[in-house]
Design brief:
By secondary structure, the chain is of the alpha+beta class. It contains five helices and four strands; from the N terminus they run αααβαββαβ.
Length: 155
């Protein structure tokens, strides 16, 4: 765990809301110079605290892909099979989030796809490439109430 001081924590909260803020704009909110902010952000990236910066798109502007929640059950949790499944999920762009969970399902996935037909094709590939996946169940999101990846960083 990286030691984060109050300035780091303030910066992390701000850049999670808008990663396009300039060092000068961040300096208006944090009591540091723009150059000090640039050095801190560079260090936080190098340490892996800031893993990447992305653009959040408006789903309607790109054709409103449908969101599916998939619960996967695997037959075997052998390390090599689990590693292959994890790599497959990580490489698949349609899989927005993947969680290894407790309970009836082994994995919960958040998947975007243009329609049910393309989603079923994706899941057919998942099963063909990962035969130890026993079954999956699907829920279709009727609407998105909240979408985000902001982690609260205590001050």
């Amino acid at each position: 765990m990286t030691d984060l001081d109050r300035f780091d924590r303030q910066l992390l909260n701000l850049v999670q809301q808008d990663a396009a803020l300039t060092a000068e704009q961040l300096a208006e909110h944090v009591s540091l110079s723009a150059s000090a902010i640039q050095r801190r952000l560079k260090r936080l990236r190098e340490q892996g605290v800031i893993q990447r910066q992305i653009a959040v798109l408006d789903a309607a502007a790109v054709g409103q892909p449908t969101t599916f929640i998939a619960n996967l059950q695997v037959e075997s949790e052998r390390p090599e099979l689990m590693a292959r499944l994890r790599a497959w999920l990580d490489a698949e762009a349609a899989v927005q989030q993947a969680f290894y969970v407790t309970g009836e399902a082994d994995f919960v996935l958040v998947v975007t796809s243009w329609d049910a037909v393309s989603y079923e094709a994706l899941m057919a590939r998942l099963l063909a490439d990962n035969p130890h996946v026993r079954r999956y169940t699907t829920q279709v999101a009727m609407g998105v109430l909240k979408r985000g990846l902001v982690l609260p960083v205590p001050q």
